User: Which sequence fits this backbone?
């Protein structure tokens, strides 16, 4: 089953956690009745309003961003600054018309993702291997290049059940989870005598683990001008394999796991005045603890500690729907913070030799300010959003002689954009 999801994700390589409508409000979605049928935050709010029960909805979204890094990974003496592009928001969700008084929701979205790219000057005081001469004896310059992309995706299906007159909805479903990772570490240096560039290290890594989870949601509209929502996601334990290989060397393979994690969101929205909605969401992700020994009994053997503190995030936003002659134009502003719930372990600095470099474990904490707009008429809605982001991409750096790793990374500003299309279908889609 895993390879089927991988093929699907090849066309959807980045998050569908919220299309442009939610992006423009800072990611608010748990407590809002969502006509664009997002499932990731609260499946019970999908198509809760704005869509007749005899109509279904399909939602497509995609976006681009530039992530940043400013810190040290392998060279303790040099701070490297750089930026790198990444796609995000690319994916789809859908909700069917009524099927025996309920609905089916389907979707693919990204739960977590790390993208990292850095070209760092090589510390030539190090040897190529432990006990060898310093690289400065034979090389004038050198460079370490790292490329990484690790993400956890969810493909889910839920049943959405209205209660009473539709002011309440509950939803529950199952998720297939697939976490994939790929990374490459290249170390090169220029010879003093010839000026030729020599490869010192070329390491590739792959990881593919999978499992199952559950998603549950509740949506309630106690007042015509207000609503509340709760979304619960259980990410079950994941298991699979990890592979590492240096160019020309043996292929190392081992079993890999990720512990289970619980995430919950609660939020609400209310109408301030005609056409103006204010909303706030609060998100909590539980801690992760795990340890293992990778590639035991081989030259690549090492202990791995996986730990992350529980994280808490807030999303807030406002939306004003401006009526036009041919439809409506929403005007949105929002704010969010998104602390990374995954851990970061030590990188290559302090290893004492190039042969000891490992791919760094990366965290990306993001704070964002957003604006958005769009246009909706009858069965079609098109939305766009722009985001100004403060990104802290950081690793854990173990300095020589230190007893504990230190955090390496700093905050840099960048921008992102996302667009989405929502289409209603069925006999009541034009109502």
Assistant:
């Amino acid at each position: 089953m895993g390879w089927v999801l991988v093929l699907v994700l090849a066309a959807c390589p980045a998050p569908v956690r919220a299309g442009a409508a939610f992006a423009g409000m800072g990611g608010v979605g748990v407590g809002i009745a969502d006509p664009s049928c997002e499932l990731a935050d609260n499946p019970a709010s999908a198509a809760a309003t704005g869509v007749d029960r005899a109509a279904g909805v399909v939602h497509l979204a995609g976006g681009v961003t530039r992530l940043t890094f400013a810190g040290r990974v392998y060279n303790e003496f040099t701070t490297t600054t750089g930026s790198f592009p990444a796609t995000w928001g690319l994916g789809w969700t859908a909700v069917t018309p009524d099927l025996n008084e309920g609905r089916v929701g389907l979707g693919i979205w990204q739960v977590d993702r790390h993208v990292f790219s850095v070209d760092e000057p090589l510390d030539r005081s190090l040897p190529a291997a432990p006990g060898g001469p310093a690289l400065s004896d034979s090389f004038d310059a050198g460079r370490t290049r790292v490329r990484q992309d690790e993400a956890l995706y969810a493909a889910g299906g839920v049943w959405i059940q209205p209660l009473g007159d539709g002011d309440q909805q509950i939803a529950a479903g199952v998720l297939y989870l697939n976490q994939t990772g790929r990374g490459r570490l290249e170390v090169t240096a220029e010879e003093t005598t010839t000026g030729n560039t020599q490869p010192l290290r070329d390491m590739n890594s792959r990881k593919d683990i999978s499992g199952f989870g559950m998603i549950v949601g509740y949506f309630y509209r106690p007042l015509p001008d207000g609503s509340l929502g709760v979304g619960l996601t259980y990410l079950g334990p994941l298991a699979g394999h990890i592979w590492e290989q240096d160019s020309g060397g043996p292929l190392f393979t081992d079993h890999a796991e990720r512990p289970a994690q619980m995430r919950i969101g609660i939020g609400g929205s209310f109408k301030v005045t005609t056409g103006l909605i204010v909303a706030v969401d609060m998100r909590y992700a539980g801690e992760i603890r795990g340890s293992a020994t990778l590639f035991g009994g081989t030259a690549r053997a090492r202990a791995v500690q996986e730990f992350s503190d529980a994280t808490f995030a807030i999303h807030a936003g406002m939306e004003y729907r401006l009526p036009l002659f041919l439809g409506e134009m929403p005007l949105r502003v929002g704010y969010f913070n998104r602390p990374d719930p995954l851990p970061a372990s030590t990188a290559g600095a302090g290893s004492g030799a190039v042969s000891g470099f490992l791919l760094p474990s990366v965290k990306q904490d993001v704070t964002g300010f957003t604006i958005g707009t769009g246009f909706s008429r009858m069965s079609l809605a098109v939305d766009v959003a722009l985001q100004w982001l403060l990104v802290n991409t950081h690793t854990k750096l173990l300095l020589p002689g230190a007893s504990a790793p230190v955090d390496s990374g700093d905050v840099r500003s960048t921008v992102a954009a996302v667009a989405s299309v929502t289409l209603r279908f069925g006999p009541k889609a034009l109502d």
